[in-house]
Description:
The chain is α+β, with helices and mostly antiparallel strands. It has helices at 20-33, 62-79; strands spanning 4-7, 12-14, 38-39, 52-53, 55-57, 86-95, 100-104, 115-123, 131-132, 135-138, 140-143, 157-160, 166-170, 176-178, 181-182, 192-201.
Amino acid sequence: MDAVWRLAPVVCRLTGFLGEQTSAALLRRAVAAAGALEPSTVDGRQVVPHVRRSRSGWFAAPELLDAIGDVLPAVEQTLGVPCRDTVPSYSLNVHNDGDFYRAHQDTDGVECADRLLTFVYYLHATPRPFQGGELRVFDGAEPLDGKKARRWEDRTWRDWEPRHDSIVFFRPTHWHEVRKVSCPSGRPEDSRFAVNGWLCRRPARPSAG
């Protein structure tokens, strides 16, 4: 009665996503933007340092959105998530020494209900000046007795390395976390940079009349 099915989440990962020149230009813009970022919030409302520690803010990356659009049909097929007629929402997230984000789902909060697909695109200097910062994605857990699934803390997982110019896609309902970053220099340019976002349902248009 205590048996549990372990359901590994499907993660779509692409490397060399933008190419050497485009990713280098995007990294330079991210480094320049880092000084204007604010402490990251939880649920878009409050800073909770024991849950999330990083800096984030608005960031323009049209070349990234164009590349995502090019591969979207293959990603949809791989993950089984239809994403046509969606709108992107994204920000730049910067993790430096000691930063992290505890396990969470991207569908937490009312404002997150329209998220259909999560994407995370990674940037960093070469050679990599930090350690850690892996994306840990937890397996699903469905008990055979039909009761509520076990806590995420009891689940197995897989860690995904934050490799420069790579991108991962997964369903926003999957539990995941950012492992603690170790960046001995503490310099902003040595941070773990990530453009983190979602493809979301378009808001319903009000009916006429």
